[in-house]
Amino acid sequence: MAQHATLGASSSAKWLNCPPSARLEAQFENPTSIYAEEGSLAHELGEALLRRDANALKKIMGNAWYNSDMQQHCEDYRDFVLELLNEAKAITSDAVLLLEQRLDYSLWVEGGFGTGDAVIVADGVMRIIDLKYGQGVEVSAESNTQMMLYALGALNSFEMLYDIKSIIMTIYQPRLRNYSSYEMSVIDLLTWANDVLAPTAKLAYEGIGEFKAGNHCRFCRAKHLCKALAEYNLEPTEPEMKPSELLNDEEIINILNRADSIKKWLSSVEEYAFAEALNGKKWEGYKLVEGRSNRTYSDPDKVADTLINAGIDQALIYEKKIKTITALEKDLGKKPFNEIVGDLIIKPAGKPTLVVESDKRSEWSPADNAASDFENTDVTSIN
Ligand code: SF4
Fold first, then answer.
1. Could you tell me where the DSSP H helices lie in 26-128?
2. Higher pLDDT, residue 136 or 290
3. 159-192 b/e with 16+ CB inside 10 Å = b?
4. Which of 89, 28, 41, 67 is nearest to 332 (CA)?
């Protein structure tokens, strides 16, 4: 089983912003998600492809999470890493590629270590590449503290052997077509490590410091019970709202800025209260009831047989439905599917969605889609 540091790199945005969170959330269970299993397999596949490990590949292909899309994404990842390795070798002939390397950053963070998917060590520029197989949230490499901790761990191991001046950290997130890189000089990285990281990590390790809520709370296991987050979400958006009966534009924007965080927090509190109620807890003023349900066949085959025996035409009983594009691509393979019916696949314009300005998509205008129905406008996906 993989070991985890108390102050892990992947949770560093949380404990660097809110130092006491690391100890507080330790008392709550860490749920394993099915997506984590899928992500682990993609990492194994990426590594096996880079190592050309036929035995490992065979084993991976037998896993239920394996599919042709994963194969393609991981082959692209392999090609990307090898291209960077070749570039590094052109500068330093003894440049090396290290896979799944333990990166120890405990010089700055008590007990701190992580695992780098791919590290290319060479004179001049060292490269850290992190494969992210998730497709939920797009991750940027810019000032990404997880990557900066990996960079420190790699620097700690190799600075004696190579003349490293700067580090390029890259997030490779193929399912979102997100390839984000960020370069930092070694001097800037070490300044941050000594001035910001080390003192904050000390607070976090001791479980002290100030609770501070923000976007980083999203992945905190304590979020459903955390008072600091509740206060943050419930406090007025503007301490001094201008006297008026209606919200002004500025006040609406303030609410939009916090909408995603508030919705997620509300869901986590509701889920917690529901789970506790199922366990027998009685919340004053609330009760569990049976939800609404729809009628269903107890035995669909028997129903069909009975109707046919009663003389009902089969065409009235069954409906024929084509499989989804994703299902057919999975069954037939992406390439053959597209060769056969690619020109019959269309992509209708998506309905307008209100998102933050930094979103990579270009701005929608009514002229883009004259037929758009404003009633379909989606305001639920603001983030
Ligand atoms: S929910 Fe947010 S404020 Fe509360 S402990 Fe976690 S990170 Fe800190």
1. 34-51, 54-61, 68-91
2. 290
3. eeebebeebbbbbbbbeeebebbbebebeebbeb
4. 67
Task: Report CA 181 to chain centroid distance, whole Å.
Answer: 17
With vertex at residue 273, the alpha carbon angle to CA 268 and CA 275, rounded to the nearest 5 degrees, is 95
**pTM score:** 0.78
* Cβ atoms of 190 and 205 closer than 8 Å: no
The 10s digit of each residue's pLDDT in 338-350 is 999 999 999 888 8
Mean pLDDT (the chain, rounded): 89
CATH architecture of 12-206: Alpha-Beta Complex (3.90)
Q: 302 to each of 296, 315, 321, how far by Cα in Å? A: 13, 17, 21
CA distances for 8 relative to 11, 188, 266, angstroms: 6, 21, 27
| Ligand 1 centroid, distance to 23 Cα (angstroms) | 11
Atom of ligand 1 nearest to the CA of 21: 5
Mutate to test the pocket of ligand 1, among 7, 11, 12, 14 (most ligand atoms within 8 A of CB): 14
Pocket lining: 22 vs ligand 1, CB cutoff 6 Å: no
The H or E element spanning position 190 is helix 186-192
Determine if ligand 1 sits within 6 Å of the CB of residue 217: yes
Determine if ligand 1 sits within 6 Å of the CB of residue 18: yes
Q: How far apart are CA 258 and CA 261, in angstroms?
A: 5
